[in-house]
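Checklist before submission:
- one chain only
- standard amino acids only
- sequence pasted in full

Submission:
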Amino acid sequence: MKEIKTINRRFLFTFTSFILYIGGVVAAIWYMYQSELDGNIQFLIFFLLLLVTLFVTSVFRAKLDSIINISYLIKIKENAGEPLPIKRLKTKEFLQTYLVSNDFIMFSSDADHFLYYRAKKDHIKKMLRGYILEIVVYINNEDSEFYLSIVDEQVQKIQDMLRKDKKKVEKLLITQIKTIKELDDKTKQYIKEIVFIRSQTGIISTINVGLHYDSNKAVLLYSDTYSPSLYYKYQVEEIKNLV
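Returned file contents:
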């Protein structure tokens, strides 16, 4: 609750600052036109104010988007669900069989990981629909972190490939899975490092899933009671179906 109050104050401060800036610009323009300044000078001042306002607006917008995206993650953490029982995902071979049977395509496989993807027309958005790109990564090494630099490169290659096929990706949903030996604080922190970003260009969501076979639990940071987006809810349901 304390984190939510803090982020709400940051949002209010940023939004109020922007409103005050716009009010100052309007007051400056009104004062300028009430003065006896030469018309050319007035135009120059107005043009400069316009350029500065465009820059300031972009900065404030980026700041507000960042604050909103942080608030999503805070609310997910504050409404976190319990670990899921592992009913189906007993082996990585099952995972591969499940993915192929659900129209996923293998993009890469090596000693460290394998990656499958599925691109399909957005079934949630009703108008001007793009594509949802779903990525499932399985990390073979239990000692590795969830984030592998090569995965970023491979996701970019998939997006480039789809772009060439005239498939515009607006929603990117990444699920990263690995077996974990023990649920220590370090591992829990890795699992909690999820991503949910909503912007003008689309949505990026990453959820980490730790398979702890000793307790027969799949550990992930998710929420059943709060969802920042229908796409997030869809991704969580897909993980439940898999596990």
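Reviewer check: The mean pLDDT is 87.
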